[in-house]
Write a structure and sequence with these properties.
4-stranded antiparallel β-sheet; mainly beta; 5% helix; Deoxyuridine 5'-Triphosphate Nucleotidohydrolase, Chain A; 3-stranded antiparallel β-sheet
Length: 149
């Protein structure tokens, strides 16, 4: 399935592209100045611009930002908010909030791949107040209720 997405480019950036035929997401790159370096100290956060704004033209589609697995496992760098949600009606520049969970400072330079973006369908809920919910085997069992093994 293909989704036409309009992209407004700023800061001299290029269109995002899928790395392989089977890629579920496109990489987002840092849109910093040529000589600019953003250093994220261990435990610190930084907001990095991407130089792109988007419109999928449909209210039933959301763009989701996710961390890059290589940055997470090799450097301890991930999205500060876990995931990013780009609502269908947002038209501003997409920026990526990064956090450094690693032990060393992490440097971001222009063109570095800092996150990935995928598009997913959205279902709007209609909330109905009830006195009781249907019964399930799990019931109200919370975190870790099934154990480790």
């Amino acid at each position: 399935m293909s989704l036409p997405v309009k992209v407004k480019l700023t800061r001299g950036m290029s269109l995002p592209a899928y790395a392989t035929e089977g890629s579920a997401a496109v990489d987002l790159r840092a849109a910093l100045q040529e000589d600019e370096v953003v250093t994220i100290a261990p435990g610190a956060r930084a907001l990095i611009p991407t130089g792109i704004s988007i419109s999928a033209g449909r209210p039933d589609v959301v763009a989701i930002l996710a961390g890059r697995s290589g940055l997470g496992i090799k450097k301890g760098v991930s999205l500060a908010n876990g995931i990013g949600v780009i609502d269908s009606d947002y038209r501003g520049e997409i920026c990526v909030a990064l956090i450094n969970h690693g032990e060393e400072p992490f440097e971001v330079r222009r063109g570095d791949r800092i996150a990935q973006m995928m598009f997913l369908p959205v279902m709007a809920a209609s909330f109905l107040e009830v006195d009781e919910l249907d019964e399930t085997e799990r019931g109200a069992g919370g975190f870790g209720h099934t154990g480790v093994k």
